Recover the amino acids of this structure.
């Protein structure tokens, strides 16, 4: 068969996701974290990632969005629209991923408040 099976498609996709993560790790080490494409790239990779990679994308987006002063969905949406954002395709997965970032930020804020 010319078309790949579901397992082959999943494997090919995971390979590409790992390549994206590896290149982003290099980019994050070499570049400033306030690069305007980083939130969009991290969101795009994050919505397709499964754990443990998803946690990595969440953590990186948390740091990058903080560096850029992005603390709300409205601010993130404005930033995403400056790159590319097609509401029909992006709204649900991007917003759900952003909620995971917000949840992680809340968890970290609670940890920082713990005096012990």
């Amino acid at each position: 068969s010319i078309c790949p099976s579901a397992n082959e498609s999943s494997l090919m996709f995971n390979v590409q996701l790992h390549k994206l993560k590896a290149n982003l790790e290099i980019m994050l080490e070499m570049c400033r974290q306030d690069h305007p494409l980083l939130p969009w790239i991290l969101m795009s990779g994050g919505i397709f990632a499964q754990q443990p990679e998803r946690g990595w994308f969440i953590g990186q987006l948390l740091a990058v969005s903080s560096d850029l002063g992005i603390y709300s969905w409205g601010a993130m949406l404005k930033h995403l629209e400056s790159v590319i954002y097609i509401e029909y395709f992006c709204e649900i997965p991007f917003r759900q991923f952003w909620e995971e970032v917000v949840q992680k930020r809340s968890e970290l804020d609670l940890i920082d408040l713990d005096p012990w």
In short: Residues 87-113 form the longest helix (27 residues).
